[in-house]
Each structure stands twice: as C-alpha cells, then as structure tokens.
Design goal:
ten-stranded mixed β-sheet; binds 6-O-phosphoryl inosine monophosphate; binds magnesium ion; about 425 residues
Length: about 425
C-alpha cells in the first residue's frame, strides 16, 4: 500500500501542479489534504493550460480518482466553476470525491478575509482573499459548516442562522457593512450547489483506506508549502492550514506509518507572494530581470511575486519537517540566461555564520544570505530530457543543491509542458 506525499518546500508556487501531474500517471488516487482555492496549480498539456485551485491535479488522468479530503476548505461555487471549465475541455469530473467532513467556505468568510486585509493596511498578510483563514478559524472555533451539513437542510439552516447572527454583528459593528441574508445563502448552497455536489460527497477516509489496503498507489497532494505552514512557517505570514507532510495524516485520515515516500517540490530559486521575511530576496534590477525571464506572476491572482536565490538553509529545515525522501526541482530553465547563479548556503546573523534556520523570527528578518556563486550555463535547457543533455554548469548547480540540502534530487523540470523533465533516478 504505497502512499506518497508531495509537498511544497518553499513559499508556494514551486510547480507542484506539474510535478504532481507527472507522478499522478502512476497513481490510482490523488488526494488534496489541506488548503482550498488559495492554491493555483498549473498543468500544461498539448499547449492547453489548466489552472487547478481546488480539484486535485490527478483529474487529468482518466484512471485516477481525485479526492478532496476532510482537511480541505471548500467553496462549492468555485469547485463547480472549476468542474465546468474542465468539462468544457473534455475532462470527466464525475470521478471526483469530496469529503463530507470538509468545511465549507461561506460568503461571509470571503468578505471578512478581504475586509480584514483592508483594515490591516500596511500590516496586511497579503492573503488570497478567498476566505481561507476565517473558515479554518470557524472550524477551530467549532462554528463551521461542513459539507455533510448540506445533506440535512434543516440542520444546515439552523447552524447558519446561529453563526450568521455573529457574523452580521462583526460585519456591521467592525466593518460597517450590510448584513448577509440567511435565505439567500441557504438558497445558493442548498438549491444551487447541493444538487450538483451531492453525488460527489463520500466517506473519503474509508475510500482512501480501501485503496491503500487494495495495494493501490495513493498520492497526497499538498497545496501551499512548508514555510506557509500555520505551525512551521513564517507566522503570521502563513496560511491557516498545515501543508507539511504530516498534514496529510490529519487532512486525509491516515496514520503516519502509511506514508513511505515524501517528495519535496522546490524551484531552482525562490518566490513568495504576500508579506513576510525572505532572506534571499532580490530587489531592483536583479529582481526585475528574474521576474521577466521567469514570468513570476500569480497564476490566479496575477500578483507580481517576490523573487530570490535558492536557500538551502530553509531547505535543510524543510527536509527535517517533512522527512523528505527526495526532491524535485522545477523551473531551472528560468535561470538559463544568468552569468552567475547564487545559492544561499548559510546566513550571517549579527556577524555569526548560521546554517540552521533560526527559530526566532526576528533573527530571520536580520539574516543576510551567504552565497556560493556558480557560473551560469548560458544555454537553453528546454529541450533536455536526459542528464547527458544538461551542461556541466547545470550539473554543478544540481549537485550543490543536493549536497547542501542533504536530499537526493530525482528530477528537474526544464519547461512548462508535461514532458519537459530530466530524471536522474532510474524510475520515479
Ligand atoms: P500554491 O498551492 C503561494 C500565501 C498568500 C499569503 C498567505 C496567506 O499555488 O503554492 P491565504 O489566502 O492562504 O490566507 O494567504 O499565503 N499563499 C500562497 N502563496 N502559493 C499558494 O498556493 C498560496 N496559498 C496561499 O499569498 O501570503
Ligand atoms: Mg500558486
């Protein structure tokens, strides 16, 4: 019963969609275990671009059962829009399974997310404004509505009435907004959404266990990333769930001993959207250059991403937090044009050389990267598909990452298309 977790090791947008799609070929089930439509996983097949926010990346393979686990927060409207887009491209979504225990993102969650960001002004987190934080907060506060509540309209309405009283108070008294109407919300969720999502609602915990017990290979697809993790990321500039590999246990209902492989996804440099510390961040011309060459704009929000050099201090920590068994490094072709490529191997914090991620975040804010500099390969990697096709400088770069991170790199991606990979291991 092989179970593999795919986890982002930086601040998101590492290319998890493309790499999950590559792995999904060999899987019979792909399970999302946390997050919601704050994710944006891009897959390019035959020139067609698919951006998946909520639906697991395995959806593009007919033999894969895509599962949205209990740990995910679900906006049914967004999910249905995504289904419609996929179906208009000929992808059958009837195989999708949705946990009855997943929490629902409600209209007030989105509104409160956006209003809170606005109120915070320059202290804002830079959230995706999709209601993720407020939905997880209600879950922890035990006032959330779950997918299974939709199946009992009376209970749904009762719970909605109770919670809406509180939310409308917040909207009116803190944000000076009009109240939300329970009738409108109930009609949207029960009359419009429910008939379409009812056939998808499943006991996904038993579904996953049946697959594992049947010897099927299950992939757990993390959204966001290690340093956006609520517990282990750069709090408060994080998301409100646990993307780390351990989150797969909670968010899908499996024990830790089920997991036998954890693949970390990184890109050959680092990006971040939203606020928070970023030791290797580039500013000025160097940043403009990388953003232009790498087209670093959000796949869903269109926001310009912050960019910086690869940081092995963070990666060594990510390896520990996730028990990484291997790494896949995406987008190394985006570095094709650089004369010099830098890799951060340690930090200078107040004159001390530090190789471990400081636990005190104010130190991370002061950390100055210590770089190892490598000559760039100055050539186009996009058509490479075997290790021999890569120039020596690219091998040196990959070897340095491997050595400094202490994790074997089994694959690098050299372009957006499904087949633009170089594998180092004999099999995936
Ligand atoms: P994928 O799965 C990059 C960031 C937001 C913000 C913080 C909190 O595509 O890698 P939230 O809306 O989750 O409350 O925002 O987390 N963030 C992401 N950054 N990729 C993502 O997903 C992200 N999901 C959330 O920019 O800084
Ligand atoms: Mg993204």
């Amino acid at each position: 019963m092989p179970a593999t977790v795919v986890v982002g090791t930086q601040w998101g947008d590492e290319g998890k969609g493309k790499l999950t799609d590559l792995l999904a070929k060999e899987m019979s089930m792909v399970v999302r275990y946390q997050g919601g439509h704050n994710a944006g996983h891009t897959i390019v097949v035959d020139g067609e671009i698919y951006i998946l926010q909520l639906i697991p990346s395995g959806i593009l393979y007919e033999h894969v059962t895509p599962v949205i686990g209990n740990g995910v927060v679900v906006h049914p409207g967004v999910m249905l829009r995504e289904i419609d887009t996929l179906e208009s491209k000929g992808i059958d979504c009837s195989r999708l399974r949705l946990s009855g225990n997943a929490h629902l993102i409600m209209p007030y969650h989105e509104e409160i997310d956006a209003l809170t960001e606005r109120r915070l002004g320059k202290n804002k987190l830079g959230t995706t404004k999709s209601g993720i934080g407020p939905t997880y907060a209600d879950k922890a506060n035990r006032i959330g509505l779950r997918v299974q509540d939709l199946l009992d309209p009376k209970i749904f309405r009762q719970k909605l009435d109770v919670v809406l009283k509180e939310k409308n108070n917040v909207l009116a008294k803190i944000f000076n907004r009009l109240p939300k109407q329970a009738d409108e919300i109930a009609s949207l969720y029960l009359d419009e959404y429910l008939p379409r999502i009812r056939p998808l609602i499943t006991d996904t915990v038993n579904l996953v266990h049946d697959a594992l017990e049947g010897g099927e290979h299950v992939l757990f697809e993390g959204a966001q990333a290690t340093f956006l993790d609520l517990d282990h990321g750069t709090y408060p500039f994080v998301t409100s769930s646990n993307p780390v590999a351990g989150g797969a246990c909670v968010g899908a209902g499996i024990g830790p001993l089920h997991i036998n492989r954890v693949i970390g996804i990184a890109k050959g440099y680092v990006t971040r959207v939203g606020s928070g510390p970023f030791p290797t961040e580039l500013l000025g011309d160097e940043a403009d250059q990388l953003i232009e060459w790498a087209e670093e704009f959000g796949s869903v929000t269109g926001r310009r991403r912050r960019v910086g050099w690869f940081d092995t201090v963070m990666m060594r920590h990510a390896a520990r937090l996730n028990s990484l068994t291997e790494l896949m490094v995406g987008k190394i072709d985006k570095l094709d044009q650089f004369d010099v490529i830098k890799v951060c191997v340690a930090y200078d914090i107040d004159g001390r050389v530090v190789r471990d991620l400081p636990y005190h975040q104010s130190e991370l804010h002061r950390a100055k990267p210590i770089y190892e500099e490598l000559p760039g390969w100055k050539s186009d990697l996009s058509s490479a598909y075997e290790p021999d096709h890569l120039p020596k400088e690219a091998h040196d770069f990959i070897e340095l990452l491997q050595r400094e991170c202490g994790v074997p790199i089994n694959t690098v991606a050299v372009g957006r298309a499904r087949d633009q990979f170089v594998h180092f291991a004999a099999s995936l």
